[in-house]
Amino acid sequence: MNKIASAFCMAASIAALHPLALAQPNDTLKALAKSQTGFKIIEQQGEQARAIQGILKNISLPDGFAITLYALAPRARHMAVGPRGMVTFVGTLKSEVWAIIDHDRNGIADEVRNFAPFIEKSMPNGPCFAPDGVLYIAEQNRVLAYPRAEIQIQDANPETLEVIPAGALIPEKFVSSNHTARVCDVGPDNRLYISLGQPYNVTQREYLNTFGEIGIGGIIRISRDGTDREVYALGIRNSVGQDFHPTTGDLWFTDNQVDGMGDDIPPGEINQQTAMGQHFGFPWFGGGHVRTNEYKDEEVPGGVVFPVSETVAHAADLGMLFYQGDMFPDHYRGGIFSAQHGSWNRSVPIGARIMFTPVDAQGRIAGDTEPFAEGWLDENGKYLGRPVDVAQLKDGSLLVSDDLTGAVYRITYAVPGS
Ligand SMILES: [Ca+2]
Ligand SMILES: [Ca+2]
């Protein structure tokens, strides 16, 4: 068991002592206790909550669906719902992971606090759970496991295991602020799958071999103790969303495609991987079947796997999941919900919505990817929210994270008129 303490948090709490002397004695004691643990409790009521509730009134959904504010969680990114159904962990691109706690498991969040404040984290975007309750958090260049995360949310320094030490996910010289928001999942083979975005718009030839050996521009898989690292997929530009099909066990993932090729190409991608070592086309293809300018005269690697669903160009498809709940109507069961973060590389912005892709019982695409929840992009092209990830609660409701408003929403369904 590898306990990691952070001197940083201690220094921060000492620096915070002085202004507290001005508060009332009881308040001082309470605040002091908090600062010594490093915990931050996010206030859930007030002006920001009311403003977000106002925005949610204008979100359009199919008949019978409703969206509400579930929790405020600053810069909320990817989410992992605890197997005990009490805590949802939410990553960020800064230093915090938020624990959203539903103490009485009634589908309404009761408390939001930072998780494991004594453990310093760097871009901890990607939390994921193993079925046995071990939480993994994929940071920019490290992976830690928290074996008892869901029951140690009050512990500033919970148990940890080092899965991939700092600096060992990718070589430091390739660390970039581009495309390093990690996501992870534990597969049906009980191994950990982690996406490694490549740092460029289009990768230069000189890096292709090295990146291929490391798994940059791909997805790696490792045993849960960090050993037996393999490159599972290549030819991926920047995947920030993945899930395993519940019956076939195939890995499906979104991929963000090349910028600067015009408003309408190349398409975004949802991919299905059926075997280890498949190649998904990048950088020979910039998205879908569209060749990149840089590689258009080059011979394409054999056996490229094209996306099973193409999405609108530049919408930035991020988190995705196969819906396995029983709250939503039959049409949605087994299908894919995915989040489009919204474009930056398009003259008229597009995205900032939740999409749905039907999938049949055999695990095959059964229709186009269509909008499910939208309205976070106003008529002037201004973002009122930017969805990042989707997650499913035990009751079958759907959570949506938003890193612009710093919130998590909950989508529920009730038969219209009931
Ligand atoms: Ca509750
Ligand atoms: Ca591709």
Automatic annotation (TrEMBL):
Keywords: Signal
Domain Glucose/Sorbosone dehydrogenase span(s) in chain numbering: 175-338
Entries under Gene3D superfamilies matching the protein: TolB, C-terminal domain (2.120.10.30)
SUPFAM superfamilies: Soluble quinoprotein glucose dehydrogenase
Any single Pfam family the record assigns to this protein: GSDH
Residues of the signal peptide: 1-23
Membrane-traversing stretches: none
Signal keyword on record: yes
Protein name stated in the entry: PQQ-dependent sugar dehydrogenase
